[in-house]
Amino acid sequence: MRSLRGLAGLTAGLALVVAVGCTGSDGEGAAAARTASASARGGSEAPAATASVSPSPADPVSLPALMQREHRGSDLRLSAVRVRTDAYTQYAVTYRSNGLTISGIMNVPRGEGPFPALVLAHGYIDPDVYTTGRGMPREQDVLARNGYVVLHTDYRNHAGSDDDPDNDVNLRLGYTEDVINAVHALRSASRPNVDDRRIGLLGRSMGGGVVYNALVVAPGLVDAAVVYAPVSSHPEENIDRFQRPEGDPLVAEIEAAHGTPEENPEFWRQVSPVTYVDRVTEPLQIHHGTADDTCPLAWTRATVAAFEGAGKDVELRTYRGEGHTFGPRWADSMDVTMNFFDRHLR
């Protein structure tokens, strides 16, 4: 196992707590379906392979609606160089996501490649203070130094991305589209230093929930996924923990648009990824600290139980005494993460 102990780790602070998600370690303040998906991997404009969608009518704001949608990610453009290191170059990037322009950063290792790629989904940071690439600087650096192209998406409504005014009241499902389309954009770019047959996802906190959604919406899209300190896989639990106690007015807007869990249980069932966990085809690894008082470990244990109950390839790693952002055991956790990705993407 490679070791990270000689690498400098950046200190990560908690970001602000928000709707449908909690703060991440943001450094500021994370078989049949596979066979069928092979054709989709040949181009970004083809929909990802999916299993059968729930026969009940899908609310337009729901995971089944995203399953039925043709996701279009394209036009990945590298612009200004932001950072040059001895191991990689970081570029500002944009790409298209179902008609929106999404900004982000991409770390490209030195050398000819082609390199496997990882799409990173960051935790919550208030969009009013968010800046391009902000979210997981430790992970961006270490993964690129170990031979992965890293595409960190800003999401819609962040930094230089286009606005989607309905995204918050619609439980931020647009972030799931942006992550799925980041993968398609990587493939459509046909860059010689990117191996578009080897792509994984990594999400932290709120981004962990985004990764859960992507796995159920687009099975076969990627080869493996890792999440850190994820939010609940039941959105209503996130709202009850992070928004309702703060008197967030967005709660009333969400419930006016979609009903409460008591009034409209079918809506809330259709926005929970565990409802559709039987669709998942990728191996998943989850890291969670036992002292996480932001996103409780019990949430992750419940999600893992749902994956295991469906016979899915899921692995939970817990870290005694680690909080939400990870500290002393972060390097150990990244060793485990890279070994996992090496097994599935190398």
TrEMBL record:
KW Cell membrane (keyword) present: no
Protein name: Alpha/beta hydrolase family protein
Family: Belongs to the AB hydrolase superfamily.
Pfam families: Peptidase_S9
Domain Peptidase S9 prolyl oligopeptidase catalytic, residue spans: 139-345
Alphabetized GO MF terms: hydrolase activity
EC number: 3.4.-.-
Keyword Hydrolase attributed: yes
Domain of life of the organism encoding this protein: Bacteria
Chain segments carrying region Disordered: 40-62
Signal peptide: none
Annotated keywords: Hydrolase
Organism: Streptomyces coerulescens
